[in-house]
Write a structure and sequence with these properties.
alpha/beta, 18% strand, globular
Length: 275
């Protein structure tokens, strides 16, 4: 457990992940029925961009800072900027658990899970104002198994591992099969890094074989996938992608890449279609 997200908070990968996560959650909240949200790798919840770790890398300057400076017309980008503005004004960046907590309705339920013993203390502190959000300290995959299927029957599981384990992709393949057995209708949002030595295509092949409805991928590349230069990009693989989300993401791509650089592509896996 050496990974510390504070070094990377607010970078381009965070922007993509949190932008799409917010869009999906907002879409599902169009129905009055309560939602379940599980953030399996919750981290600190909120990040101080003036902290030494963030200042050492300055990754947020090429991510959220660029977006906040950009003039955008796309409604989803404008919404995300408005959400991020308060924290950014105070030199902070809200992670996914705080983002979700701020969006919760009385009928919704959020569990934020973080295994790291120091980070979970900060997570509890950052979520204290959002009672009754539950914070757990479990292995992330154990937390998922323990909470699905939820009583609400509708909801989201966000999975963004640090990928410290060499076999993380293989582990995800095994876990994806279990998730579908337990809760086939859940919306699972899986974030992953794109590096030259990562078996991304194996993950796609395994996901396609599950034949889950509307399995959709969006990749954000700063460099070509095979370049041996650390993090070339990132992706989101989503099972049971809500309607309109792929089209809305495609619509914001020109302004997002115009602000942050790089290129974005999206596609369905297997027999999944937009229908």
């Amino acid at each position: 457990m050496n990974y510390r997200h504070i070094f990377h908070a607010g970078n381009f990968a965070d922007v993509l992940k949190h932008l799409v996560f917010r869009m999906v959650l907002s879409y599902l909240q169009q129905k009055d029925k309560g939602l379940f949200v599980l953030d399996a790798f919750a981290g600190l919840g909120c990040y101080d961009l003036t902290a030494d770790q963030a200042q050492r890398t300055l990754e947020y300057q090429d991510g959220i800072a660029r977006l906040m400076e950009a003039v955008v017309d796309n409604p989803d980008l404008k919404d995300f900027k408005a959400f991020a503005q308060e924290a950014f004004t105070h030199h902070r960046y809200d992670g996914s658990p705080v983002l979700a907590a701020k969006m919760l309705r009385p009928q919704d339920r959020l569990i934020a899970n973080e295994l790291h013993p120091e980070d979970v203390v900060s997570l509890r502190r950052n979520l204290r104002a959002f009672d009754p959000v539950a914070v757990t300290q479990l292995d992330a995959y154990e937390a998922i198994r323990a909470n699905i299927p939820p009583k609400e029957r509708r909801g989201i599981v966000l999975i963004d591992p640090p990928f410290e384990k060499k076999d993380e992709f293989q582990l995800l393949v095994r876990e994806m099969q279990e998730w579908q057995k337990r809760w086939a209708t859940g919306c699972y949002i899986l974030w992953y890094p794109i590096k030259s030595n990562q078996p991304i295509d194996d993950l796609y092949e395994a996901a396609a074989k599950l034949q889950v409805n509307r399995t959709w991928v969006v990749e954000y590349l700063l460099r070509e996938r095979g370049v041996e230069q650390g993090l070339n990009g990132c992706g989101l693989l989503i099972f049971n992608t809500p309607f309109q989300i792929p089209e809305r993401v495609d619509a914001l791509v020109p302004e997002l890449t115009g602000a942050l650089g790089g290129k974005i592509r999206s596609f369905y896996l297997g027999n999944s279609t937009s229908a």
